[in-house]
Design goal:
By secondary structure, this protein is of the alpha/beta class. It has one domain: 3-Layer(aba) Sandwich (Rossmann fold). Helix content is about 30%, strand content about 20%. The chain has 5 helices and 5 strands, in the order αβαβαβαβαβ. A 5-stranded parallel beta sheet has the order 3-2-1-4-5, with helices on both faces. The two termini are about 20 Å apart.
Length: about 170
Amino acid sequence: MLSPPRELGDFTATIKETAVGDLAYIDAPYGVFSFTGYDTGELVFISGGIGITPFISMLRYIRDNKLDKKVTLFWTNRSKDNFCFLDELKLMEKAIPGFKLHLIISGDEKEPGSGKRLEGSLIKEKLDGLENKDYFVCGPPAMTGSIIKELKELGVPTGKIHSELFQL
């Protein structure tokens, strides 16, 4: 079962007051969180919770355009029930030859293989070296800040780390 929604900002705090027929203004995204502006050999996507959303789009782009990209995705959630898009990601593992998926369950100690936090040391352990890669980090502010700090401590240059805060 999915966790109940959390009120983290102006939108989620007021959504319960929205009625059918209310007018809403939806604007285009303004960010530049994309791998397309970087000429790198490998991509490392690091996601926390619903921060998976931009990576789903990027992976679809890679798949649909048959790009020869090596991509490793680390995705952490508190519970296995919070992994949306999981069926699609498993299909992408087959469709994108260089794609590897690593799921980390942080909050459910009863779950086999869970109870661990996504940390720089785990990322380093699962990758074939840290160099010649661009790292894209998207998730809650605390997780994003922690991962960026740990990547820098591991020697990843600041210019190779790209981030987007994502919270609902």
